Amino acid sequence: MFRLEAHLRHSPHHSDIGTCKPTAEAMFNSYDMFKNANKPENSETWPANLIHPQSFRHTVKQNQEELEQNSRRLFLSERNLKHALVVIREASDHQNFLTTECKTLEHLRNHLQASHNDPKCRHVFFKAEHSRRPLDCSKAMFTSVMSWHQIMAPFVDLVLGFGNQPSGKEFHYTSFRHEASLDQNHSDIFSIPELGRSGLGIRHCFNLWSPEETVSPKSNTPSWSLRQAAAYHSFDLKSGRAVWITIKANDVLKKRIIGATDTCDALQVEALSELAGCFSAALTTHLIFFEWCGERWRKYNGSLEKDTSNILDKANNIPVHKVESLLDYDIETLIKTLQTTPETIASPTPERARTWQSARTAYSVPSSPTLGKFSRTFSGLSRITTTTMNSTGQSSRAVPPPMSPLLGSGPKSPVADSDTDDEEDDEEDRAQPQDAFQLLRNFGIKQLQSLNCIKADLHTSCLIMRLNAEVLNDVLNYYNELFDSFPDEIKTGCKYSFLEFSRRTTSIIRFLEKEQARTSALMLLLDDGKELFDKFLQLRHIEQNKLFTANAHQSTQHMQNLTVEMANSTLNMEQIATSTHTIAEKAKKETSSIHFITVVTLLFLPGTFIAVRLGLPPLPLIFNLLTCSQTIFGSGLFQWNDNDDPEGRIPIWKGDHFDLFMKWCGGLMALTFSIWILWAFVRPRCQARWRAYRQRQKPVDEEEGKTG
């Protein structure tokens, strides 16, 4: 049994509650167990290599597994170790504070093992490139520091909140965990005399959040971010040795602590020569963290309040009476007003045209692209209708461009209202825009989204302040409960220091509570303003729907007018088509007559002219002159008496001339018909013979082509 327990305590994976009384061999081998736990192969198993953990074994094992699973996002990889940096600020007995920067694991191990005793006060700082980047150290460097100082296992929960976290911030997780070994009868369980550790002391860890302002180098505009810091502290109640582990992405807390160790009297090496002075220095260091977590909330909440006012002032200062007067119209009345008479549309004057143009401008809501498109479409229809009326000269009923519904209907209008207002109201009305949608333009989805973002920031701010206050209150209660168990030297020598610590911590807690109350009130005001903002947004949508209805009605009227115009045009086209068809029929008949006349002329004309020419008596002298002007009446068939005898007007028939005419005319006509009949009969046969010849000749030609 004796050897078994000693073997378990030498194992780096050993874990127990820590309150069991060990054997004598185990007590004397604490330093050997410590050296075994800090071997290079065992130190990386922290927190499983803790000598005397006060957590259960399965809890320590779970913490070790979580740290291993998240090591890739928490610590630098092997290729980025050139950026590794661990800063150590420490003061030994009667030596001032010195700062050491360890950039390699070997340098860090050598520094921790350089002295036989722990320093009087040691600060170890871990930082990162920014809040979403891994810590500037490797896992081996981090676990070496944790294992050397035997950091409590619950500190892993706070470490997991750092590093590369693409999935979020765990919604501002905060915690305060503590352990203590105050029983002097069993202090040897945790003691390592070779390092100056008495085994009697307190250990706790916590994390806090605070807003930090950064200025973008590109835009030169300030922006706020919520940043966290985690701290571990252990204090030896017998030797007064203190260890601080600080994890913060930037150098804010490191610079403050280093500056305080140089300037603050309570943190000077002279004050660390006594146990009471060491405890007072530990309390003062706590206040550096506490003041950091509560110092900028007023400015941060003020920026949120300013952003809220910039949006809500537009809703609170809008002239409601002006909006009501401009929007005081009825949609049915508006539609009836739009249905004007043809005389109103027939010849608009330039003044009326300008009125219509201004009405279209007021009618289309500038902040709505859909309404703008509607207005452009309607304007095009108006131009089409006007052009059609001007070109056709018709006075068909058409709907004019929309009148401005914002001018009101009936006796209620801005002009009428301005006549009844006071002079101051008149000046205010003239200063305000005459378009209700111009007043409601700033109430859009973007502003509503901004209000939601501000409200989310206020909720987060209120939550973090409450969590910070609870952590501070837990730390204060923790010290109040343990103060009576501290050594008499601390209780008497640090009485006023502890009262000052309690007073300042309570003051920070009260400040956070007041800021919470102010933030809660601001959230209520934001809810009221958001509701008012939402009402204006709904009003804007309702009025837009009314304008959509009026615009749709007027577009329907224009479409009906265009339909009528198109129907009239269709009827005209049908009439033109009917007339064209009639003309075509007549032309067809006339063409047939012309073809018949042409055929007859071609058949009879040659014989007729030849017969007329040969049927005349021989007149050799004038024969050539009469060839082109002879007719049937000039052929000699009919003759008139040239005397003055009234009976001589009747033509005299010449039969011999007619016989000669018929002989030539009939013969030539018969010859013409014979030639035509012969050609009509012979031509098909000639074509058939030619095709047959070509068919017979084709193989011969092909054969000659192949041979050639």
Automatic annotation (TrEMBL):
Descriptive protein name: CorA-like transporter domain-containing protein
Q: Where is the composition biased (Polar residues)?
A: 387-397
Q: Where is the composition biased (Low complexity)?
A: 405-414
Reply yes or no: does the keyword Repeat apply: no
Residues annotated as transmembrane: 594-614, 621-640, 660-682
- Highest taxon above the source species: Eukaryota
Q: Which Pfam families match?
A: CorA-like
Q: Where is the composition biased (Acidic residues)?
A: 418-429
Quick one: where's region Disordered? 387-431
UniProt cross-references to InterPro entries, sorted A to Z? CorA-like_dom
Alphabetized, the UniProt keywords read: Membrane, Transmembrane, Transmembrane helix
Q: Where is the CorA-like transporter domain?
A: 41-315
